[in-house]
């Protein structure tokens, strides 16, 4: 077994800071956090904790580059480009990383209407070049594992309950086995059975070497599995 110190860092967040300008209010600037630094080892489950509103989700969104950062660096040891600063990389590199290496699982569902759940789940695999039939079969496997009834697979996920939408988001995030997976409150609206399935999925993924960063208020459940916890001070 490898000692912690022998496992390389895959992500090195250095002096990260984010500001939002509230254009629709009075133009004021808010700074949820500044000078945030942490390092994440490959294949670890890394938990970001802290008070509500401290900026935990914002950090995940900066790493996925949904948000541009205002300060600092997000050094990522990518398979395709080597060491790259996600904070300043060009859009093409970011698209490529999102397709091949980075996954994000949001608490909320954002999908096109009328696309069936099975297709929505298979989409990340199809984008990676997996043949459609194979991708749909794999999608069925994940939806089944997460307890989404087969009768719902051809419906639009817009009609799903909150917990079903969350499980579909998780299926979509795990299906393509990215190198780094960012999970925003992965167990928030789940019952006990679904929660334990998700915790098993997280455990299996890290065992395969996938690095997971998660934000969760379910400290007891996640911390038991987490290799490291970063406390974001408000
Ligand atoms: N797009 C945005 N525009 C303006 N302000 C934002 C935006 N996104 C986040 N914020 C603000 O940044 C702060 C941090 O939000 P964030 O969602 O990252 O917190 P959090 O720590 O994840 O909170 P919670 O635990 O409640 O989910 C909040 O004050 C929020 O209002």
From TrEMBL:
GO terms for molecular function: ATP binding; ATP hydrolysis activity; transmembrane transporter activity. SMART domains: AAA. It comes from Ktedonobacter racemifer DSM 44963. GO terms for cellular component: plasma membrane. Residues 11-234 form the ABC transporter domain. Pfam families: ABC_tran. Keywords: ATP-binding, Nucleotide-binding. InterPro entries: AAA+_ATPase (IPR003593), ABC_transporter-like_ATP-bd (IPR003439), ABC_transporter-like_CS (IPR017871), ABC_transpr_LolD-like (IPR015854), P-loop_NTPase (IPR027417). This is ABC transporter related protein.
């Amino acid at each position: 077994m490898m000692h912690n110190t022998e496992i390389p860092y895959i992500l090195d967040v250095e002096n990260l800071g984010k500001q939002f300008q509230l254009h629709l209010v009075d133009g004021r600037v808010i700074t949820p956090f500044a000078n945030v630094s942490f390092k994440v080892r490959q294949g670890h489950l890394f938990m970001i904790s802290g008070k509500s509103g401290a900026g935990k989700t914002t950090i995940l969104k900066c790493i996925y580059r949904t948000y541009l950062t205002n300060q600092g660096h997000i050094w990522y040891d990518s398979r395709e480009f080597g060491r790259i600063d996600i904070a300043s990389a060009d859009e093409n590199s970011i698209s490529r990383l999102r397709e091949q290496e980075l996954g994000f699982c949001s608490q909320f569902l954002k999908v096109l209407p009328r696309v069936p759940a099975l297709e929505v789940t298979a989409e990340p695999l199809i984008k990676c070049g997996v043949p459609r039939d194979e991708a749909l079969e794999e999608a069925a496997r994940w939806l089944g594992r997460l307890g989404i009834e087969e009768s719902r697979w051809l419906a639009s996920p817009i009609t799903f309950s909150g917990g079903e939408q969350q499980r579909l988001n998780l299926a979509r995030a795990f299906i393509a086995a990215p190198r780094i997976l960012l999970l925003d409150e992965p167990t928030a609206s789940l019952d006990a059975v679904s929660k334990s399935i998700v915790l098993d999925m997280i455990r299996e993924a890290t065992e395969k070497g996938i690095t997971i960063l998660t934000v969760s208020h379910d400290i007891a459940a996640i911390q038991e599995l987490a290799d490291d916890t970063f406390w974001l001070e408000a």
